[in-house]
User: Fold this.
Amino acid sequence: MNIMLFGAPGAGKGTQAKFIEEKYGIPQVSTGDILRKAVADGTPMGLEAKHYMREGKLVPDGIIIGIIRDRLSEEDCRKGFILDGFPRTEPQARALDQLLGEMGKKIDVVISLNVPDSTIVDRVTGRRVCTSCGASFHTEYAPSKKEGICDLCGGELFTRKDDNEETVTKRLVEYHSQTAPLFDYYKKEKLMEELDGTQGMTEVTRKIFEILEQKNKEKS
Ligand code: AMP
Assistant:
């Protein structure tokens, strides 16, 4: 199944993508994770992207589309994938349609995690991410059992450079102006499933699995 998770930064896309990945054995494709790795490795792409990310701005479409083209052609995406944080602009959505068309694939479902801005800042500023497996925690709402250590793999937790109030506010502006309009596009295509992302994490996961089971049934 080819799944797209849609929603503002901090809506829970990455957290839920990990659960889906574990249950269905299809990979999470997070453009944010790929970019952070490129920045950490100091690749030319990372050097170019770094400045935009620190500023809470979107990285240019050309870079992002190139990343997705390469990643979706990899062997592990053959059975399906979970898009997390892509597409974020109209040209990205168009490029995705074209790419999937070339590959003879399509998106089966778009799941939108709806969370109001007032909740987002709180969520993002308390977020802690594992340096090793990328799992997310929250200092207050979903703390790791041992402070600073990932429950899943024992890796060290860190705070993303762009997870501060000032940058999150800018990321939300980008989200509302560039990404939110895509909602209507996927709704028109009858792919959109909406969930209240403010419910507890386990409840959101349960509802996502319900949607995916239903889609699986419809497919077979
Ligand atoms: P994320 O981890 O999805 O919150 O992404 C972190 C940052 O990476 C964003 O604020 C952007 O600067 C950049 N980024 C990630 N995905 C995209 C995308 N699809 N288009 C443009 N910029 C992106």
